[in-house]
Amino acid sequence: MDNKNCVKLVLYVVALCVLGTNVSVFSKSLEKEIIMTIGKENISFGEAKRVYDKSHSRGGVLFEQLTRDSVISFLDTYSKYKLKVIHGINEGYDKDSVIVDEINRNKRVLAETYLIETAIVEPAMKRYTEMRKSQRQIAIIMANFSPLGDTTEAYKKIMAAVEDIKNGETFENAARKYSDDEATASEGGVVPAWVTGLRLQRNLESAIYGLNVGEASKTPLKTDYGYFLIKVLKEEPRIFIGISHILIPYANENTDLGPIVKDSADAKRLADSIVREISRGGNFNSFAEKFSANKTSSVNGGNLGIYARSTGIVGSGIYLSPEMENAAFALKDRQVSDPVDTDFGIQIVRRDSTVVFPQHFEYDEMKANYNRIFLQEDKEKFYDSLAIAYGFELNNSAFERLLQLVDTTKIIDANFREKSITFLPEEPLFSILEKSYSTKDFIDDILLISTTNRFIFANRADLTEAIKMIIQPIIIDNATKNLHQINPMFNILAEEFAAGLILFKGEQIHIYDKVRFDSVRAMQFYDTTKMELRIPLQYDLSEIYIMSKKKADEVFEDIKSGKISFDSAVSLHSQRQGAREKKGKYGVVNTSNYLAYQAQKYEYKVGDISEPLSFEQGFSIIRINDILHERRMTFEEALPHIAANVQWEYQEYLKENWIKELTKKYPVKYNDKLINKVFKKK
Question: At what angle do helices 122-131 and 363-373 cross, to 10 degrees?
Fold first, then answer.
């Protein structure tokens, strides 16, 4: 990433992180006091505090709590930043067209972020936070669509259920008679898992929370996979409890569940004896560690974590079986249940505690899920509603004439622009906020979008989307035109972003553009640096690689006895791919390589040949061709290692000189009287 993009990213992230935050105030009387002057510009106590507290927000120490030395250190750093910005403004960098465009784009991003956060996300979070205070138990009647997607039979079935209920049949009996969901139909439609906000498809959630307890929907709800009737059975506060268990499985093929008791009678006898021993004062955790087949929880004394009916185990979202869940919630804290039969085997459950979380402990998780699942849909609806409020109108006849002229398989380009000017009348295509946009205006904007965003194809869907892309900035600008009055931080953030761009342009001109590689400077660095520019001990090796230990021993003995030379043995016996073509040349390697490490370990000399060494999947016989002792790199060898340091050192030199020049031009003065009054010496 280049310097320019890196600076933009940092500024953008910082801006988004603090949007909407307020400047904490230490003392109104100090807020406007001048703590430092830079040239003719005054830096107030409030400005210095805001900048410090924002950049050190995780440190826990506020600006006014600093020592005098720490304040001076901070002001020194901040003054260097301000010097560059003040110089840039005086040089007219803020008038640069590229910077102006960047600033305007950033203002729109900040404005849209604020708009979406306050108009959509915050109300949604408030709604879901309220929903999450309680949980609901529901019953359903479901009529599935056919595998081919036909909805007729499903509609007939669900309407038959509606009629039966209307004529006096209970919801429970209608569920048993009509519902296609076998798991709940046998239970009168009761869904075992309780529900709460942001855990369901939106249409189901809306239907459930649109009903009162005891009330059932009177008309079917259509989803992607069937029709639903819903009845709300109960509503209760969400309670979080700590749960531990001991699992004794039987007739279970899941080997992960440890030792399996041979039958249910044995399991029941063991479970009864454990419960009896615990009731006499036995340690539940010890029994869980010894007997529970759940290996994951048994090592923690059977602890499963914190649980709520509607959201499962905190952190994992895993739900317990209905039998186990009901047993746990029927207990009081520290009570242990009787043995409970479940599909996994017999469970002994302990309710460890009732847990009270802070009100907003799920806020971040809810917000992340909302942004991922629903935000885009809600943004589109929001912008559509604003478009209507701002008087958006589409000239349908002009739009249809445009569609008749286009080839829907091609993109909108300059050729099409000329064609449209020739064959289409000059007429409004759409209007918003009492301003009309002609077909020509529209196509010009599309061409601009195509160069900066994506190609627009000449079909109804793409052209409709293109209109939305064009009017969206207009909508945002109008909706946020008074944002600087509503939220003063917006102006501060916009100014900080602009200052960052101005600063970077100054650094580009005075530092980065002046940095050139200089061999003389590099040589000076090489001669004086304390960097470890060492080439370690190395061995130049040749190798015979043989898969069989017996064969490797035979070849080594033949070489040792003089029956065959090392080079001939390479040609006849080496099994490493390509080794024969390279005449066994292994290369120059340091002692991080196993073969070189062995050469050093056994103190081989030049010309020595090793016994077979176990290596990789076989055995290596190596010859020491040369030993290259540790030494300092030559200048040429060191260049790749020192080049970045040389450049950085020169950049720092240029920065330092530039700051000295700026300080002469714009003298920096601290208000020592104020600093001594407010800040402690140590």
Answer: 120
Mark whether 343 and 415 lie in a shared domain: no
Place of tokens 């690689």: 545
User: Residues 673, 35: contact at Cβ < 8 Å?
Assistant: no
Rg (CA), the chain: 38
Q: Looking at residue 361, what DSSP letter applies?
A: T
Q: Cβ of 40: how many Cβ atoms within 10 Å? A: 8
C-alpha span between 504 and 486 (Å, rounded):
30
Looking at the domain assignment, is residue 126 inside a domain? no
Residue in the structure block whose two tokens are 């490493």? 576
d(CA 565, CA 134): 86
Residues 159, 233: one domain? yes
Which residues are bridge partners to 351 per DSSP? 243
DSSP state at residue 104: H
Mean pLDDT computed over 93-121: 92
User: Phi and psi for 387 in degrees, rounded to 5?
Assistant: -60, -45
Lowest mean pLDDT among 100-109, 123-132, 250-259: 250-259
Single-letter amino acid code for the residue at 450: S
Mean pLDDT of 388-404: 93
Q: What's the rounded mean pLDDT across residues 620-646?
A: 95
**Helices marked H in 487-574 — which ranges?**
488-510, 519-528, 549-561, 566-573
Cα(642)–Cα(94) distance, integer angstroms: 37
Work out whether the CA dihedral 11, 13, 19, 23 comes out positive or negative. negative
What mean pLDDT do residues 501-518 have? Answer: 94
Q: 68-90 and 45-55 are packed helices; what angle lies between their axes, rounded to 10 degrees? A: 100
Residues near 268 by beta carbon (within 8 Å), at least 6 away in sequence: 339, 346
Residue type, 323: E
Rounded to an integer, what distance in angstroms lies between the CA atom of residue 190 and that of residue 177?
14
Q: What is the pLDDT of residue 13?
A: 33
Three-state DSSP class for residue 93? helix
In a domain, 517, yes or no: no
Same domain, 19 and 89: yes
**Residue 447: what pLDDT?**
82
Residue 40: give the domain boundaries.
3-111+487-508
192 DSSP assignment: S
Using one digit for the tens of pLDDT, what is the confidence trace for 468-493? Answer: 999 999 999 999 998 878 888 888 88
For the chain, give the number of residues.
Answer: 682
> Domain tally for the chain?
5
> Please, which residues bridge with residue 241 across strands?
307, 354
pTM of the full structure: 0.67
Q: Is residue 249 scored above 60 in pLDDT? A: yes
